[in-house]
Amino acid sequence: MQKYSGFGLLKHALSHHENWQRVWRNPVPKKKYDVIIVGGGGHGLATAYYLAKVHGITNVAVLEKGYLGGGNTARNTTIVRSNYLWDESAKLYEHAMKLWEGLSQDLNYNVMFSQRGVLNLGHTLQDMRDIERRVNANRLNGIDGEVLDPQSIKEIVPMMDCSDKPRYPIMGASWQPRGGVARHDAVAWGYARAADALGVDLIQQCEVVDIIQEDGAATGVMTKTHGVISANRIGCVTAGNSGVMAAMAGFKLPLESHPLQALVSEPIKPILDTVVMSNHVHGYVSQSDKGDLVIGAGIDGYLGYGQRGGYHTIEHTVQAIVEMFPVFSRVRMNRQWGGIVDTCPDACPIISATPVENLFFNCGWGTGGFKATPGSGHVFAGTLAAGKATEMAEPFSMFRFHDGALIDEHGAAGVAH
Ligand code: FAD
Ligand code: PYC
Question: I need a labelling partner for 18 at 20 to 30 A (CA). Which of 32, 379, 394, 415 fits?
């Protein structure tokens, strides 16, 4: 047994007191749930909502170690698009896009989904070949998309430098008019409120520290603050922490957890009414309804769980943005942050059963899962309800890394990784 003295004893007593305070304030009903969702980000909350709404399964708990929507959902730059290359992912992200288009009405909560269009710029001949290939593939899948030349880009974003002066002149772009942005925390709150109204238990400050198994099947979770909570099925939707969750269950996932950073400027008057992304020069920008320029970077190259990232990445991104938009050079930066994204080798998610019976994972969305939130929740709810992958989830099984059926998605890299 650990011995405490002096400051250690005080700290231990306080942390115990704090934990009991939490339990007291936030009691968990002593019952067995049909489904436990670990992770109260957008994807976990959406899963709980669709379990209740579409499948009538309301005996559900969402366990969140911090506060609802405080992970990557709170930290992302909210770009929504469905212009993915391969059929499997195009289908999944377009499914999400269609749900986005009715989401505020469905949740009776304004998620501020704004279809202001997304430009993905090309700066080299190879970029342009990739853009043409992707737009053609999108159209074959019924997804809107056009290839634009610099002149047409200039008409959409007049203040962008489309001349041949920059280091990497803009040669063209793909344009998805139905793409855009949404309000990140409204998405989490909208799903949370709607799930709660259908009877789902949302339990915050409740970190899962172990997966309990009997005879190779998951039967519940051990939590830091609320002891054991039992369930028939468990869905882990823990983004950058999914490798840690898998280790608790005794297997490995082919995931890397990297910091991904973003920043906002001081609020300025409306100047940019679309989303501009450049994978090649590593930067993207849109303007929020508050007026901030929302700017994002490529991933930091190292692995980590620090939710911050290195300064040089931000500096590099700002250089790229200023080169594309010289007019932004005197705008001041307001704040910067990072999240931890979980990337798979083929840049596609995992929506899957696992080697442990009754335990399912939804993760690996990497730098691009916000746009998938409604589709991910909808598809994962179907998987949890059925106890096996639904048709749309099938290609995203974790076992694809055993049988070689990788998807190798080119459209996932909205930012460099
Ligand atoms: P999260 O919101 O991270 O939720 C997971 C939750 O699990 C967290 O709240 C965490 O606290 C909880 N958790 C973890 N471990 C435990 C545990 N042991 N017990 C209990 N709870 C636990 N995607 C886009 O599509 N467009 C973008 O523009 C975009 N920009 C991004 C910019 C940045 C800077 C970052 C970091 C990401 C960006 N993304 C973007 C990616 C997107 O944010 C994520 O893919 C998406 O939000 C993942 O949602 P989630 O619900 O799975 O994860
Ligand atoms: O996937 O579109 C995207 C994206 C933009 C910023 C981060 N990810």
Answer: 32
Residue 106 exposed, middle or buried by CB count within 10 Å (0-12, 13-18, 19+): middle
Q: How confident is the model at residue 25 (pLDDT cuts 50, 70, 90)?
A: low
- Whether 77 is in the pocket of ligand 1, judged by its Cβ within 6 Å, is yes
- CA atoms of 265 and 267, how far apart (whole Å): 6
| Residues having CB within 6 Å of any atom of ligand 2 | 77, 79, 81, 284, 296, 367-368, 414-415
**Nearest ligand, measured from the Cα of 244:** 1
Q: Distance between CA 401 and CA 403 in Å, rounded? A: 6
- The packing angle between helices 184-197 and 373-386, to 10°, is 30
CA angle 37, 41, 43 (to 5 degrees): 70
Task: Report the pLDDT value the prediction gives residue 3, as an integer from 0 to 100.
Answer: 45
Structure tokens at 235: 């869905």
Instruction: Locate all alpha helices (DSSP H) within 288-393, ordered by sequence.
Output: 311-324, 373-386
**pLDDT of the residue at 415:** 65
Q: Within 13 Å and on the Cβ side, how many CA atoms surround 182?
A: 32
Arithmetic mean of pLDDT, 376-380:
98
Coil, strand or helix at 214: strand
